Amino acid sequence: MTTNASGQDSTAPRAACTLRVTVSAGHGALGRIASALGAMEVRHLSYDVPPHGPAVAWVEVPRRDGARARGKLGRLVDVLDVSDVRA
Q: Which of 5, 42, 61, 74 has the most CB within a 10 Å radius?
């Protein structure tokens, strides 16, 4: 077992929230998403633009930031839907 400075097990998986963000594909959408999440710890961000239909971004943040991230992303002009993906 490895511990961090606060004495917690640093090898244990950390609680995370994965969000599926459906976006109207357009110029600058990914930049706006990244900017909205700039003050948070983003563990993973991927962006897929299919030939037809809306783009999809996958965002993983700590569970404690999930509601805040959903709120910020939901207010962006290009975002059509934000849903929490449960494992």
A: 61
Give the helix/strand (H/E) hosting 23.
strand 16-23
Q: Is the pTM of this model over 0.85?
A: no
Q: Kindly state the DSSP code that residue 12 receives in the 8-state scheme.
A: S
Whether the pLDDT of residue 86 is over 80: the answer is no
Distance CA 6, CA 23 (A): 39
The backbone torsions φ and ψ at residue 37, rounded to the nearest 5 degrees and listed phi first, read -100, 5
CA dist 12 and 10 (Å) reads 6
Which residue, chain included where needed, has tokens 């002009």?
Answer: 77
